[in-house]
Q: What sequence folds into this?
């Protein structure tokens, strides 16, 4: 059984219909391989309230919410702020892992402000806006996500946490 996921594409140009976003189709096979099914793609402009509302709605409907775009330092990059405004807790290790692994490939990753966290029963992760960068970053954290989703969805037995019987 696949875990349902939503992709929120944050882009003024895509929201205005000026360009098509390729991220969903690029991520779909990687999501599937990690046990997720992309059930919804939402496109919003780089507007804090619209991003926040999209994250809230997606978290109410799916267990994994990925955003792409708006994580850099451009004047309109507000995705981390919108995400931080709605999540209940941060999961810094996911963002740290994405940045660390990305820095092995490009110094530009030092400018990433992506965050990850939990809202309700969902895990929320900011990915880069460049489709290939989003795919790479998802790949860096994919193995951790099913467990994090399971923990957020409900009780997980001690064996899942590496505990051993005495």
A:
């Amino acid at each position: 059984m696949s875990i349902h996921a939503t992709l929120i594409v944050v882009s003024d140009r895509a929201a205005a219909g000026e360009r098509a976003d390729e991220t969903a189709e690029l991520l779909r096979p990687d999501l599937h391989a990690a046990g997720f099914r992309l059930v919804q793609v939402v496109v919003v402009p780089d507007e804090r309230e619209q991003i926040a509302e999209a994250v809230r709605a997606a978290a109410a409907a799916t267990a994994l919410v990925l955003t792409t775009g708006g994580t850099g330092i451009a004047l309109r990059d507000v995705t981390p702020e919108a995400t931080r405004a709605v999540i209940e807790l941060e999961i810094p290790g996911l963002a740290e892992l994405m940045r660390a692994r990305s820095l092995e490939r490009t110094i530009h990753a030092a400018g990433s402000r992506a965050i990850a966290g939990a809202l309700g029963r969902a895990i929320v992760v900011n990915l880069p806006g460049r489709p290939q960068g989003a795919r790479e970053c998802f790949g860096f954290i994919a193995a951790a996500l099913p467990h994090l989703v399971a923990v957020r969805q409900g009780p997980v037995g001690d064996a899942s946490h590496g505990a051993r019987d005495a």
